[in-house]
Every structure is written in structure tokens, then in C-alpha cells.
Design the sequence.
């Protein structure tokens, strides 16, 4: 390449088509004399062609702005599919041993108060019911996620007379973590509402039912911490 | 009544929903933007996203893959749904224009829509790039910015943008099966 040498890194920008005209010309005149650069450019151009297979939207991260209704509709669709003709279908059968909360759904509220001994799952499957009437009115669904650890929680906060019932699914907390769930009032008051040991299968998660003496309209957040006080998840109301 | 902590088996309703919600939270923006560009219509795009997530729920095994694969799968499914629906509409001659000429939908003019099928390999490779290389490619290639604009956006000198473009493309050579040894490296900066 000697005196005709160009800055080889120009080849990348050339392949991507972002060089200005002068730089493009200098690359092209060099390419005429340099088989090594021609070879390399062929490779880079092939990569550029492959990149076209990826739409620009592939780089958008996160949920769509204003997408709450869309998420709720999607979850309802899944719920309907699950709850249709095959109500006691595969998934609910798998959930035997748990009280299958076919009605405890994001956006729809929770079947809290339906907690029963876990060993008779079939008898305890919730009967078919209109989801709109199944949940205590005023139930709020809160969510929390920690992108750093992958832990996430969905929690239904159902109102009672001056206090709340919680139904939380906590997923992705490392096995063996000693967890405690708190309800935080808008005045900063905190009520511990239950504690447990994180499941050995973090992906399956732990379902927690709990109570707290904080008035429904004063719940500011539901927190999951380790029992020695490290914050794991915070779902804000 | 029994309160306190209980273990949940895989497949419980709430776990499923948390799963779909996490897919939505991570990839929903991408899906809706993509479907909006393909359909030119926000309402139609929302239907496509809903159907895509529904199919993801039916195939939870896919969601255990690496992020690039998951994203590639979701984009492919969304594209197929759009294609199928356009085809179904085309079979009904009374309906008009399936696509509005909404040019504001995509940040670049390039039409990628027909090539998504193989995008998983590319997305995985992009995912594996160093963040510095990846962000330069995103700015330059997918956002259609000039080197100077990208340099401003990223707060680095234009010369760095240029060399990162080069090294990013080199790092991606595996996606076209051109695994050349690093023989040419000594000429590079």
C-alpha cells in the first residue's frame, strides 16, 4: 500500500454508504490499486447486505408509549383462550397443587379470598364466571421489575374494609433468598405482610397471599425486600 | 383461608401473565413500531402485536432463547401476520388500500420488510457486539444519521465513529459466513 495507503477504517463507512464525495473518491482510487482492500471491502459489503435483514425497529427497547390498553387486551385474549371450552385444560391441570386462580388477572383484578387448602385443586378451580364480576371492585394490579436481576412481580391489591389483601407473583428472585413483602402507605407507614424463602426454581416464582392493615386508598407501594432489608422489588401504586 | 407464601407451579395464570407482560415490556415498543410501519395504521398494528404476543404465549419455549433470537422470532411472526392479513384482504376486492403512504413511520427509507426471516442471526450478532460498536451502527445505519450527526449524538469525535463503523462491520463478518482470519488487521487503525 505504501504511499497510496488510505486509512483502512474508511472502508467501513464506505460500505455503509456514509462517506462524503471526496472521501469516497479517494477510497475508490485506492481500491483500483489495492487487492487487499478490495477483498476486505467485499466482506464488509456482504455484512452491510446482511444488516438490511434487520428492520430499524429492532433497536427499540421497552414497551410502547401508551401501550397499557394494548397489554390489557392481550392479557384478556390469553385469559379468554385459557378459560374457553378447555377451562380445566393443560395449564390449569399443571397448576394442580396450587389454587389455580383462573380469574386472577392483570387488569382484571384478583380472586383474593379464594385461597384454600392447596391439596384439592380440581374441586377448587374457580367455576366459570364472568371476569368482570369475579374480582373485588377496586382491585389494583401493580407491577415491578428489576432489569438488572430479571426479577419481577405482579401484585393484585384488593380492597377490604380499611385494609388490603395482596396476591403477588414474585419471579426471578435467587433461590434461597429470604424475602419479606411490605405494603407502604402514602404517609410512609410500612406494614410487613408476609415472608418466605424464594423458590429453588426462580423462573416458576413464588405466589404470595398476604394482608396488611393499610387502607386501600392509602397504598403507595408494595415492596419485596430481603429479610435483612435489601430492596428487591418496588411496585408503586 | 390460607395466607402466607406459597410456591407456584409453572403454568399458573399469574406466572403466564407476568411472562407475557415482561415480553411486552421488553419488546412491545419494537413490535408496535414495526407493525405500524408495515400496516400504516395504529389500530391494525395493535391487533398484529396482540396476535404476535398471543402466539408467543402459545410457544413459551421460544422465549427462553437468547434475546436476539426472541426479537427475531417476534418480528418474523408479526411480519407474517401482516402478510397473511394483507393477502386475506386482497382476496376481497371490495376493500381498498391496505397501506397508507405514511412515510413518517420508519426512521430510514430502506425497506427491510421482506428480509426479516433471517434476521435472527443478525440480531444475535448485533446483540453480541460491544455497546460502543452497536450504538454507532444503530445511529449511522438504522437511524440514517451522518457521521457528524452520529458523533454529536454519541458525544465522540467523527473519526471515532468512522473507526467504530469499521470494527463493528468486521466483528459482524460471521453473519455472512465470511470468517476470514484476522490477517488484514495490521493495516487497520
Sequence:
Amino acid at each position: 500500500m505504501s504511499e497510496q495507503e488510505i486509512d483502512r477504517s474508511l472502508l467501513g463507512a464506505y460500505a455503509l454508504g456514509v462517506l462524503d464525495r471526496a472521501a469516497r473518491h479517494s477510497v475508490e482510487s485506492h481500491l483500483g490499486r489495492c487487492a487487499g482492500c478490495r477483498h476486505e471491502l467485499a466482506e464488509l459489503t456482504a455484512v452491510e447486505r446482511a444488516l438490511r435483514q434487520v428492520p430499524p425497529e429492532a433497536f427499540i427497547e421497552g414497551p410502547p408509549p401508551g401501550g397499557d390498553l394494548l397489554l390489557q387486551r392481550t392479557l384478556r385474549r390469553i385469559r379468554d383462550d385459557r378459560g374457553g371450552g378447555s377451562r380445566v385444560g393443560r395449564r390449569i391441570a399443571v397448576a394442580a397443587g396450587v389454587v389455580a386462580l383462573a380469574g386472577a388477572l392483570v387488569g382484571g383484578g384478583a380472586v383474593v379470598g379464594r385461597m384454600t387448602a392447596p391439596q384439592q385443586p380440581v374441586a377448587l378451580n374457580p367455576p366459570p364466571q364472568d371476569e368482570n364480576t369475579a374480582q373485588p371492585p377496586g382491585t389494583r394490579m401493580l407491577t415491578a421489575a428489576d432489569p438488572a436481576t430479571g426479577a419481577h412481580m405482579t401484585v393484585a391489591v384488593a380492597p377490604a374494609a380499611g385494609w388490603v389483601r395482596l396476591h403477588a407473583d414474585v419471579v426471578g428472585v435467587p433461590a434461597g433468598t429470604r424475602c419479606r413483602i411490605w405494603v407502604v402507605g402514602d404517609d410512609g407507614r410500612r406494614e410487613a405482610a408476609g415472608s418466605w424463602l424464594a423458590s429453588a426454581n426462580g423462573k416458576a416464582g413464588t405466589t404470595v397471599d398476604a394482608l396488611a392493615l393499610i387502607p386501600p386508598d392509602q397504598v403507595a407501594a408494595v415492596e419485596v425486600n430481603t429479610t435483612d432489608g435489601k430492596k428487591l422489588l418496588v411496585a408503586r401504586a | 383461608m390460607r395466607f402466607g407464601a406459597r410456591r407456584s407451579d409453572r403454568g399458573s395464570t399469574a406466572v403466564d401473565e407476568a411472562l407475557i407482560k415482561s415480553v411486552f415490556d421488553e419488546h412491545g415498543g419494537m413490535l408496535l413500531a414495526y407493525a405500524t410501519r408495515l400496516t400504516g395504521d395504529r389500530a391494525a398494528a395493535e391487533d398484529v402485536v396482540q396476535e404476535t404476543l398471543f402466539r408467543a404465549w402459545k410457544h413459551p419455549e421460544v422465549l427462553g432463547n437468547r434475546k436476539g433470537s426472541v426479537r427475531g422470532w417476534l418480528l418474523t411472526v408479526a411480519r407474517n401476520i401482516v402478510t397473511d392479513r394483507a393477502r386475506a384482504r386482497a382476496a376481497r376486492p371490495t376493500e381498498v388500500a391496505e397501506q397508507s403512504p405514511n412515510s413518517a413511520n420508519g426512521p430510514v427509507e430502506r425497506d427491510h420488510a421482506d428480509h426479516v426471516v433471517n434476521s435472527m442471526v443478525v440480531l444475535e450478532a448485533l446483540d453480541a457486539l460491544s455497546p460502543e460498536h452497536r450504538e454507532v451502527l444503530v445511529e449511522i445505519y438504522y437511524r440514517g444519521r451522518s457521521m457528524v450527526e452520529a458523533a454529536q449524538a454519541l458525544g465522540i469525535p467523527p473519526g471515532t465513529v468512522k473507526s467504530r463503523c469499521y470494527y463493528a462491520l468486521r466483528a459482524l463478518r460471521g453473519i455472512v459466513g465470511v470468517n476470514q482470519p484476522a490477517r488484514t488487521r495490521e493495516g487497520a487503525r
